[in-house]
């Protein structure tokens, strides 16, 4: 049977532009994807977005599409529909919502940041489903996140609420590109994990891989420096989760992204060290669980936004 309702979803990051047609049960019906020409000028990037939309529009299902949800790397400003992704230099204050609307004939379009999109996707179909108060985190090259409060995804005035990566957990820590010091992202993001391991004596394997995934493999094999780097990352994440819980009383923290792929190397020390920070009675029972949506979290979150927050 044909789907009752369909939206188009875009997930735009520094590496790829993914698109899909999604029905109201969360089924991905059609996919399209192209590389992001992230080092090119803004118009070139927008043409790539238009190409993905054109591929989706070629589907017979396009006639049923009622709106477009856009998940984009940030910072974003949903109040005016603009994006300024750190990893797409050609887009600074770029009017993405306006340009997407023009590309789809004036159809309604809604913008959310990629961390909030992950939260929306996990709350709709994933590990936060049925939970009224949750923090959903993307731990990868950077660390982002989104909040579910009172059963609804919480955007904040500009759409950046829940950006846990820039909570400071080391007051005298290393400077962060954001201008602060000791941010969660600098410690728990993939580059921070790898840098700390290399600085303390870990060396890459025969293939020269110095990524956080390689550090995770070494930690899994028992390398003490690699394990210590993940312990430090876990402690930074635990401090950020506990701080968030103290402010807004979340009941669950959902952790996804490439670094979360380390599995127990990350989650075991994270759950253990969270007990050191989440000590008040109302935050003591926070669950920490892996995300379930994987690489489709952004697309499904964008689709959730289009269904939930139509213009």
From TrEMBL:
It comes from the Bacteria. It holds the Pfam family ROK. InterPro entries: ATPase_NBD, ROK, ROK_cs. Coiled coil: none annotated. PANTHER family: N-ACETYLMANNOSAMINE KINASE, ROK (REPRESSOR, ORF, KINASE) FAMILY. Belongs to the ROK (NagC/XylR) family. This is ROK family protein. It comes from Streptomyces sannanensis.
């Amino acid at each position: 049977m044909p789907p009752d309702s369909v939206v188009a979803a875009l997930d735009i990051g520094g590496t790829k532009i993914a698109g899909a047609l999604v029905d109201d049960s969360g089924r991905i019906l059609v996919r399209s994807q192209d590389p992001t020409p992230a080092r090119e000028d803004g118009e070139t990037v927008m043409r790539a977005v238009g190409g993905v939309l054109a591929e989706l529009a070629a589907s017979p299902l396009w006639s049923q599409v009622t709106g477009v949800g856009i998940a984009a790397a940030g910072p974003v400003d949903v109040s005016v529909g603009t994006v300024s992704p750190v990893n797409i230099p050609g887009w600074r204050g770029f009017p993405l919502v306006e340009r997407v609307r023009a590309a789809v004939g004036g159809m309604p379009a809604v913008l959310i940041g990629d961390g909030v999109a992950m939260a929306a996707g996990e709350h709709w179909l994933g590990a936060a489903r049925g939970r009224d108060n949750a923090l959903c985190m993307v731990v990868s090259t950077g660390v982002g996140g989104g909040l579910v409060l009172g059963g609804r995804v919480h955007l904040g005035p500009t759409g950046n609420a829940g950006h846990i990566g820039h909570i400071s957990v080391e007051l005298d820590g290393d400077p962060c590109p954001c201008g602060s010091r000791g941010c969660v992202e600098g410690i728990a993001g993939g580059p921070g994990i790898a840098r700390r391991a290399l600085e303390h004596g870990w060396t890459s394997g025969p293939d020269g891989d110095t990524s956080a995934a390689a550090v995770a493999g070494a930690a899994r094999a028992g390398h003490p420096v690699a394990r210590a780097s993940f312990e430090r990352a876990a402690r930074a994440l635990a401090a950020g989760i506990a701080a968030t819980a103290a402010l807004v009383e979340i009941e669950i923290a959902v952790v996804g992204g490439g670094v979360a792929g380390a599995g127990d190397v990350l989650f075991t020390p994270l759950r253990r060290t969270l007990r050191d920070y989440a000590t008040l009675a109302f935050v003591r029972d926070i669950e920490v669980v892996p995300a379930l949506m994987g690489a489709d979290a952004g697309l499904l979150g964008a689709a959730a936004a289009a269904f939930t927050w139509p213009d």
